[in-house]
Amino acid sequence: MDNVNGVELGVFVFFLAVVTVVGFAAARWRRGQTILHLDEWGLGGRSFGTFVTWFLLGGDLYTAYTFIAVPAAVFAGGAMGFWALPYAAIAYPIVFLVGPRLWSVSHVHGYVTPADFVRGRFGSKALGLAVALTGILAMMPYIALQLVGIQAVLTVMGVKGSGLAKDLPLFIAFALLAAYTYTSGLRAPALIAFVKDTLIYLVIIVAVLYIPTKLGGWGHIFDTAQASLSKVNPATHKPGGSIITSDLNHWAYGTLALGSSLALFIYPHTVTGALAAGRRNVIKRNAALLPAYSLLLGLLALLGYMALAKPDVAAAVRAAKNPQLAVPTLFDHVFPSWFAGVAFAAIGVGALVPAAIMSIAASNLFTRNVYKAFFRPDASPAEETRVSQFTSLLVKVGALVFVLAFDKTLAINLQLLGGVWIVQTFPSLALGLFTRWFHRWALLAGWAVAMVYGTVTAYQQASPTQKHFGQSIADIPFIHHTGYIALTAFVLNMLVVVVLTGLLKLLKVPDGVDETSPSDFLADADDPRVRDLPEVTTG
Amino acid sequence: MPHKAAQSTRPLVRVVVAVLLIAPFVIYLAVPSYAKIKPRLAGFPFFYWWQLLWVILTAAFIGIAYALTRSGGGRTPAGGPTDEKGE
Question: Whose CA is closest to A154, among A365, A5, A363, A39?
Answer without folding.
Answer: A5
